[in-house]
Amino acid sequence: MGTLTGCAQSVDPIERLGKKAAERVRPPAPAAGQAYRRWGLAAPLAPAPHHPSQPLSGSPARTALPPVVDHVPTRDKVVFLTYDDGAERDPRFVDMVRELRLPVSMFLTDSVVGPGYAHFARLRSVGANLQNHTLDHAALRGLPYAGQRAEICGQQEKLRSRFGLRPRFFRPPYGAYDPTTLRAAADCGITAIVLWRTSMGPADLVYAHGSHRLHAGDIIAVDPDEATGPTLRERTTRLLRRVQEQGLTVGRLEDYL
After folding, report:
1. Which of 43, 102, 200, 208 has the fewest C-beta atoms lying within 10 Å of its C-beta?
2. How does pLDDT run across 112-135, given as a tens digit for each residue?
3. Per DSSP, what are the bridge partners of residue 192?
4. Domain that holds residue 231
């Protein structure tokens, strides 16, 4: 038995060298800093400024009514990613936001989210911000004050009761609003009506106005997933590639408004 044990423990010097060489050439496990590769990006996202620049002159002045914005005037080379409704609840999107440290703003509609608020609690835990998109996704323009206020304040209360927060931003469904919307939003504690200059559809970017390229400060709406279209993750990856191609990165909207 002693002889056999000795043979088992004895390793040929040439074999030992071969093992060490194999260990030297074995590819390392993907590092945390290389997460971008797992999400289809050729390079990591550039970090957003730690201290965002103050809005440039010409940005909406603070008044009794919230400003309506689709673009933030800033010298920082950032754009802002926003997502509406809350219909798609892919757990891998949570992984994407966490691993890329992706600052995103989710505008939630209660009747769309339904029983899926736990998914958005997970997104919030990895850095996503949750904002208001009404209770029932009603087209607000033309509705009386009481109806508009009920839609906006009702969702404020839903998000407060579930997450202990009262959103500062509101996105009206379909981007449709009127002066009554601004008054109702102000009375519900909203500080900005957030629209979008650019949206990411199933195939490519669509521009609401202005030149057909991204600019620093653009607010981008990533369209909700369609049954036959690319997933939200795929649309986000396509968008991030375009952002990088144009020398930009992603900032946190809540740091700039």
Report:
1. 43
2. 999 999 999 999 999 999 999 999
3. 169
4. 67-255
